Amino acid sequence: MKIIWEVEIYPHDWSKALVQPIYKGDAKPRVDPASYRGIYLTRPRDHPQKTTTLKVVDSFKYLGVSIDKDLAMGPLHTLIRDNIQKANGKLQGLLRDLKSSRELHSSHHTTLGRASTSPKTIGLLWKSCVLVHATQYIRYIHSPTQLKTIQTQLNKSLQSTFGCSGLPSSLQAELGIPPLQYYQMKQLASSHFRLTQIHQHALPGQIYAFRTHNLPHLDPIDLSNDGNPLKTGAGAVS
């Protein structure tokens, strides 16, 4: 445009244009061409050597959640596992530093001001450092296989943190940490309440109502699913 302004010569392609008539209104006769305003659509000038390549989008982010085109939640599943691994590595380094700081104190010194490495303190550190990464977006994981792999990695982190090689379920029960399925169902129930009670007239609530009302009827006996509500509960809501 700068060159056109300087040389006062417009491109030859611009001598042809598509004219889109826009009606002026004010009860003007529609059969009169003067009642319309012409909008000229010209071809944009591209650089002769410039080409535009369109990339195929396989995934995108929505509210910080990585979503793939098939809604299989593969990128999110990988992200959760990577975050658990990174957070566990940082936590193990922190625990080593706490252990080293305690060993610097002799036995006859006071314990005031010393870092605590009690099981309760370690449990709180693990929840705030590792567990939060596993539960933040767990409601979007609708595959039982993906949920199981995340739970397995979380169990390994918990075992390495407490130096326990026993059954993960026993360790979780001892520490009062429910499985990921509990957090998933809790988040889904919270989303269901928001979309049906608080935001029921908003667009997300209307879409959710349309989706749930058009789902096939589920027999109550199918909801038990041999004691595993994850296969039907999470899949039906998501």
Question: How are strands sequenced across the largest beta sheet?
Answer: 1-2
Q: Largest sheet, if any?
A: 2 strands, antiparallel
Query: Low-confidence parts, pLDDT < 50 over ≥5 residues?
Result: 217-238
**What amount of the residues lies in strands?**
5-15%
By DSSP (H or I, 4+ residues per run), the number of helices equals 9
What's the alpha carbon Rg, rounded to whole Å? 31 Å
Report helical residue fraction: 40-55%
Whole-number tally of structural domains: 3
Structure overview:
By secondary structure, this protein is mostly helical. It folds into three domains: 40 residues, no CATH class; 114 residues, no CATH class; 60 residues, no CATH class. The protein is built from nine helices and four strands. The strands form two sheets. A two-stranded antiparallel ribbon has the order 1-2. The protein has a two-stranded antiparallel ribbon with strand order 3-4. Helix 2 runs parallel beside helix 4 and helix 3 packs antiparallel against helix 4. The longest helix has 30 residues. The radius of gyration is 31 Å and the shape is elongated. 11% of the residues are buried. The C terminus is likely disordered.
Notable traits:
about 240 residues; mainly alpha; two-stranded antiparallel sheet; two-stranded antiparallel ribbon; 4 strands; about 50% helix; disordered C terminus
